[in-house]
Design brief:
The complex is a heterodimer of chains A (234) and B (437). The relative contact order of chain A is 0.19. Chain A is 35% helix and 26% strand. In chain A, α6 (178-195) links the parallel β7 (166-170) and β8. With 234 residues, chain A is α/β, with parallel strands linked by helices. In chain A, α3 (104-115) packs across α4 and α3 packs parallel to α5. With 437 residues, chain B is α+β, with helices and mostly antiparallel strands. Chain B has two domains: 3-54 and 287-433, no CATH class; 89-254, no CATH class. Helix content of chain B is 55%, strand content 15%. Chain B has 13 helices and 13 strands. In chain B, strands 1, 2, 3, 4, 5, 6, 7, 8, 9, 10, 11, 12 and 13 form a 13-stranded mixed sheet that branches. In chain B, β3 and β4 (104-107) form a beta hairpin. The radius of gyration of chain B is 35 Å and the shape is elongated. Classes of the chains: A alpha/beta (234), B alpha+beta (437). The A-B interface holds A 53, 56, 58-59, 78-79, 82-83, 85-87, 91, 93, 95, 97-99, 101, 110-111, 113-116, 119, 158 and B 1-2, 4-5, 9, 12-13, 16, 327-328, 331-341, 429-430, 433.
Chain lengths: 234, 437
Amino acid sequence: MITVSDLSYAYKIGKKEKENIVPVLHHVDLHVAEGEIVAIVGRSGSGKSTLLNLISGFIRPQTGEIIIDGKKVSGFSESKWAEFRLEHLGFIFQSFQLIPSMTAYENVELPLVLKGVSEKDRGEQTIKMLKRVGLEQYQSHYPGELSGGQQQRVSIARALILNPPLILADEPTGSLDSENEKELLNFIQELNEKDGITFLIITHDHEVASIAHRKVEIRDGYLREGSKLHEVQR
Amino acid sequence: MKFKDKHRFVRSNMKRNKTSVWMTILASTIGCAFLIMLASVGFAIHKTAVDDVMSYRLMNEIEIQSENGPLIEEDVKKLQDIKNVKAVSRKKYVPANELSLGEYTGYADVSSANIPSERKAGLQLEKGRMPKSKNEIIIGYHFAQELRKEMPENFTEGMSEEEAQKKMKKLAYDGDLLNKTLTYHMKVDNPEIKTKTQINTVQVKVVGIKEKPKKEWMTDSSVMITDDLHNEVMTLLSEIDPELKNSDDSYSSVKVYTSSAEDVKAVSEKIKGKGYLTYSVVSELKELNIYFTLFKAGLIFIGGIAVLIASIGIFNTMTMAVTERSQDIGIMKAIGATPKTIKRIFLLESGYIGLWGVGLGTILAYVISYGVNFALPIIVEQFMNEKPPEDFILSYIPWSLTVIAVTICMSVTLLSGWRPAAKATTVDVLKALRRDV
């Protein structure tokens, strides 16, 4: 599903004349198979979020190659990336990233709107998805009127609405209490088992990492898949 | 993303920022209305000038003169042979201009005319008919007012102008002249000619009265006689003034009428080709139009500055909207909105602001224009004790001005919304998600 080869990235900090280059990732190789749940763990500042942002297309690699679902995405233009994200990727963020001026229904519906799905089909699919995450009765609520757990479920519904084969999750339980965290992890497992969705989860939480088929550690920007030191079979 | 969804999206965003959006719309409305109103003054003056030119002459009329002197019958024949010439009106001036009815005497511009040609040229009668025999004449609509009783000496002395006019009105003929027989006096307006004690007269019958001139301030006191009567009158007059005996058979005025206004240019060229000089309202209008087109363009340019100022408001509102919605834009980009979609949403929003501004501005301009044209004559009459010229308008908004104004306003609006829309596409997803923008 995902193949990352020799991926390096360095942040440029400061003004042009006094630019500091801070290397974050060094020659990273990673392979995620279809149907896998892979957790990338590591300390704060280790480069795990940068890796996810590169795989999401939010930033561009300076060297290396990323292939997702058979497509070499590392050379995509911004527009191509946007289209690819819409069709192939689902996102779960730590801070949910819902649009505050839109209701739960409108937030979930948004990817369908961007894809140009007809209003009738959108309605059916959105209600079905809200039912699936148990928020049908909250469809007209705004994010500010929902609890953290409910907001995360809305964001999951939005991530799933276009049936993406891959979901990228950045600290998905970071803003949740233990009860909601447990619920979310069960749901991720259910989606993986029933729908065959591949998950790449960035976390520093061992509880979250425990549901992964594989755990890959990233330390000071170095990661080597298959290394016994950094890779722990579940 | 479908247009309907973009529209819905934009509408909900506009609703959220009602106050700033409406203030921007108001600025655009005033800018657009100012542009239209300012230009409408130019259009009104142009229209008044054109109407003024047209009120004196017909569009399909061409005045003909020759460098070799007055035109004669041979010239008329040449002109009649030209394609698309509907009629050739020719008139001969008659030196005798005194006519009377009983104790009433009047003076008029008397000319002879070829009646069939005049009919073809479009001569219309208010009442009566065209002359059929030699001593039948047609008079102008206001000729009756020229017939007055003889004024006693010092009749208006010591009177104000208003009083004198009132008194003189009482001396004027107040009746219908149709079918009345007038006495045409064979007098010549030449101080060198000693007046005979016995003056020849000719009895003429009024058979037709020309239609009222289209403008209220125009008067028509002319008298039109037949060619046959002209010959008789000239014979009698030459007895008094022998010089008139030598007067040739030339016309004092020759006018060509084309089948339609579109033919004027081509016919004029052909007439010029035959060695004549021409003058038509079309050529006068051409010069007039060039001058007024420049004048109107200048006014539109000045009005455009107001639109430009209003566009700064749109630019500001849209830039604020992009800044305020950076997080939303980032989220949308993250889940798959293309830069093109984002750009179109913001362009649509500025387009809607412009459209509302243009729509309301145009309506406002029409209302002000109507109000000004309605109120101005009343104000002028009230405060200046003078009536403005008939048909005078201060503001005129033709559809072409509306089209020009709408095009300018919408173009400026879209241009001012372009930069903020382009800025929206450059919102950094990561910064937006981190709430760093």
